Amino acid sequence: MNQSAPDPAPVLALKGVSKSFGAVRALRDVSLQLFAGEAHALAGENGAGKSTLIKALAGVHRPDGGEVLLDGEPVVFHGPADARDAGIAVIYQEPTLFPDLSVAENIFMGRQPRRSLGRIDRGAVHGTTAALMRRLGVDLAPDRPARGLSIADQQIVEIAKALSFDARVLIMDEPTAALTGSETARLFAVVRALRAEGAAVLFISHRLEEIFALCQRVTTLRDGRWISSEPLEGLTEEDLVRRMVGRDLDDLYP
Question: Structural domain of residue 30, as residue ranges?
Fold first, then answer.
């Protein structure tokens, strides 16, 4: 599968973004660039500002300062629906599906294709869902009830739903935390399929080995500040930990 080369202009970017909650400065002058066809890791300890950054990209929080850029143009998201309409999707650790609906019904909830007289075109819903699963390389039946799906399969449904909205940026927030080894391997294969289609993926994980296995670049935050954005090639886990904590491993574990 050919991995598309990163486009010279980022699909989505933060430029000098700051965000405070009362006296707490969650982000201070943070910049980030996400390119098409690339998986970009976001690293940092708890409290480094990762969640606030995700919410700024996803339209949940509006920055106090700085800009969000979409295809190089400043944009203001007034809520998550604006971000979704702009092609940005967040895949959470534990998605919230409607358990009594099928996989296909969850994906097209509230916007099912219609036939004459306004009836839902179930064939189109089923066929489009099957096509989305083929794009992702996953064998998940469209008519299967959501109830009883594993966390891993629920995430796949959310990713398929994002693709049905023509998402170009997928933000994955600790997606492997509740997955087994084989489920993680399948998720990584899905991410590679998304990259091959030209999607930009922002991947957040505490597991450094996953960052090195999946991503091409990494941005590190510490105490709400931008520390670095750099290629992972040539970097070691020790290098990354040093950026995250601000001191050598030997100082942490003498």
Answer: 12-97+149-252
Contacts of 118 (CB under 8 A, 6+ apart): none
Edge-first strand listing for the sheet containing 217-222: 73-75, 65-70, 12-21, 24-34, 225-231, 217-222, 39-43, 200-204, 169-173, 88-91
Q: How much is the average pLDDT of 173-181? A: 93
Q: Is residue 227 a contact partner of residue 195, using CB atoms and an 8 Å limit?
A: no
Q: pLDDT by residue (tens digit) across 218-229?
A: 999 999 999 999
What average pLDDT does range 44-61 have in this prediction?
Answer: 95
CA atoms within 13 A on the CB side of 123: 1
Total number of domains in the chain: 1
- Is the distance from CB of 50 to CB of 229 less than 8 angstroms? no
- 137 inside domain: no
Q: Does any domain span residue 240?
A: yes
Q: Residue 124: its pLDDT value, please?
A: 76
- pTM for this model (two decimals): 0.89
User: CATH number of the domain that 64 lies in?
Assistant: 3.40.50.300
Report if residue 125 sits inside a domain.
Answer: no
- Which tokens go with 79? 């809520």
Give the total residue count for the chain: 254
